[in-house]
């Protein structure tokens, strides 16, 4: 049976996902078989495994860092928020239904067998399991029936690292307050605290570290600096969503929808030396970019209504009419069509007009499409680009005229997506991951501006780049965390 370590945080965004990713890589570098695990994830960034099952995108990145194929067992429970009070529940990669928060709270204890089965199966195949908590273990209103923080730690007998985010301020209060709110048996599981995202001179922290250890009785096992590493982000708290990229030849504006999903689709664009990617939440911020992207969303109709109300739809339509290219991905593709119909109430029911930029129509259905695909662009400015992606959507979209062409052809010969003029729509997430579409897009956009693509520089191979980032992250944790103390605590508690 595998040894384990669990990373919890004082709040969402404390850096748990990054620490877990780095620890997965650090243990791999020591020759160990490693797997990540998060019992319950709440995120709109998701991933489809090779067997067509849905997990959180963060666990897919952690698996990659661990050198293993993403597996549904790494994230048995996934919640995809569909409103302020409800989420789609995905168990073992498949949709179980939509639940209000109060109903899910009553239900979640029944999911413990699924969680334990997934964990124990992974533990039997690996040397180390690196477990990620969610939010904070000190949410005392949610302590009863917890399945993701201390409740899970108890179920699998895991030692716990507690991380706090110093960048947002108040880290000593965060850590002390969290420890103070833990029950004695929960506090006994803490092997150390970690101060994350530090900028400055560590020596200036020392008096605070000493006092924190005295107040909590828990050692500080590391001060991790602010790390300039490019790792796929977990959710809407991502800092990349507030990025205002400048200084690059090509300006790409991604609409920051309220329920944006899978914005990690555009990470490869951000890595290209010619492409500046920024996220836009208001019409006044849009300007005149070289490309507008409508990303995926958990609620297409609601987010289109939001764009309609705040003037973004009109602004995008005006840009498209003036010749600015527009790309829609998944929900963004659905928005670009003529009509959106929801006869089964998947998104609340009813019908609405789309943006009218593509000759296609979408009908929502209760069954979810979940599949990995390979495809190739056969026509248009990106002809020849090969794609390796996945589909996650509830609707079906059909072209209304023969004037428009498919965006790509799937490996089995089926047509995928729609393109008409300089407007493109596709259901494929991960469409830029191979690098071929990224290169074709950059070359086309640069050419439209009269710039020579060869003069800009060639981006590093995507896989090489990602592996470098994981190694950089692991090296930083090896330098700034007391991994010896962490491993010793793992051996003491986990006798596998």
Would you give an account of this structure?
This protein is α/β, with parallel strands linked by helices. It has two domains: 3-231 and 467-493, Rossmann fold (3-Layer(aba) Sandwich); 250-450, 3-Layer(aba) Sandwich (Rossmann fold). Helix content is 32%, strand content 28%. The strands form six sheets. Strands 2-9-1-10-11-12 form a six-stranded parallel β-sheet, sandwiched between helices. Strands 15-13-16-18-26-25 form a six-stranded mixed β-sheet. Strands 19, 20, 21, 22, 23 and 24 form a six-stranded mixed β-sheet that branches. β11 (190-198), α8 and β12 (220-225) form a beta-alpha-beta unit. α1 (16-29) packs parallel to α2 (57-65), α1 packs across α16 and α6 packs parallel to α8. The chain is globular and about 70 Å long. The chain starts with a strand and ends with a helix. The model has no long low-confidence stretch (mean pLDDT 92).
Any key phrases for this structure?
alpha/beta, Rossmann fold, 2 domains, six-stranded parallel beta sheet, six-stranded mixed beta sheet, 17 helices, 28% strand, globular
Quick recap of the structure?
With 496 residues, the chain is of the alpha/beta class. The protein contains 17 helices and 26 strands.
Shape, principal axes of CA atoms: globular
Name of the CATH homologous superfamily of the largest domain: P-loop containing nucleotide triphosphate hydrolases
Distance between the termini: 5 Å
Radius of gyration (CA) equals 23 Å
Uncertain segments are: none
Number of helical segments?
Answer: 17
Give the rounded overall mean pLDDT: 92
């Amino acid at each position: 049976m595998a040894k384990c370590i669990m990373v919890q945080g004082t709040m969402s965004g404390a850096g748990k996902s990054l620490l877990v990713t780095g620890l997965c890589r650090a243990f791999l570098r020591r020759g160990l078989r490693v797997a990540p695990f998060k019992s319950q994830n709440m995120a709109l960034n998701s991933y489809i495994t090779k067997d067509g099952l849905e997990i959180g995108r963060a666990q897919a990145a952690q698996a990659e860092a661990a050198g293993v194929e993403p597996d549904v067992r790494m994230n048995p429970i996934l919640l995809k928020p569909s409103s302020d009070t409800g989420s789609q529940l995905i168990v073992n990669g498949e949709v179980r239904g939509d639940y209000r928060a109060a109903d899910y709270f009553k239900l979640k204890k029944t999911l413990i067998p699924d969680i334990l089965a997934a964990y124990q199966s992974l533990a039997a195949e690996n040397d180390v399991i690196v477990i990620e908590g969610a939010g904070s273990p000190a949410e005392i209103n949610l302590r009863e029936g917890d399945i993701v923080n201390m409740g899970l730690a108890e179920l699998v007998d895991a030692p716990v690292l507690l991380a706090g985010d110093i960048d947002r301020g108040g880290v000593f209060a965060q850590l002390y307050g969290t420890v103070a709110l833990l029950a004695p048996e929960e506090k006994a599981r803490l092997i150390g605290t970690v101060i994350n995202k530090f900028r400055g001179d560590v020596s200036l922290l020392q008096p605070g570290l000493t006092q924190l250890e005295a107040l909590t009785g828990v050692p500080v096992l590391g001060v991790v600096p602010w790390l300039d590493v490019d790792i796929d982000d977990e959710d809407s708290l991502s800092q990349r969503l507030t990025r205002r990229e400048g200084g690059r030849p090509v300006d790409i504006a991604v609409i920051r929808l309220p329920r944006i999903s899978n914005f990690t689709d555009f990470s490869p664009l951000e890595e290209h030396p010619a492409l500046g990617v920024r996220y836009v939440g208001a019409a006044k911020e849009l300007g005149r970019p070289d490309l507008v992207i409508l990303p995926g969303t958990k609620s297409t109709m609601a987010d289109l209504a939001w764009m309609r109300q705040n003037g973004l739809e009109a602004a995008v339509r005006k840009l498209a009419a003036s010749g600015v290219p527009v790309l829609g991905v998944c929900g963004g593709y659905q928005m670009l069509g003529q009509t959106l119909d929801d006869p089964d109430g998947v998104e609340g029911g009813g019908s609405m007009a789309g943006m009218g930029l593509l000759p296609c129509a979408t009908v929502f259905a209760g069954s979810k499409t979940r599949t990995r695909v390979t495809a190739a662009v056969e026509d248009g400015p990106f002809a020849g680009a090969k794609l390796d992606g996945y589909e996650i959507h509830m609707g079906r979209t059909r072209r209304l005229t023969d004037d428009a062409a498919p965006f790509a052809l799937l490996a089995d010969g089926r047509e995928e997506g729609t393109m008409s003029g300089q407007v493109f729509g596709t259901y494929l997430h991960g469409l830029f991951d191979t690098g071929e579409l990224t290169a074709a897009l950059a070359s086309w956009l640069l050419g439209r501006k009269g710039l020579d693509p060869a003069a800009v520089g060639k981006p590093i191979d995507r896989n090489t780049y990602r592996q470098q980032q994981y190694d950089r992250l692991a090296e930083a944790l090896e330098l700034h965390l007391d991994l010896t103390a962490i491993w010793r605590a793992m051996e003491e508690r986990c006798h596998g």
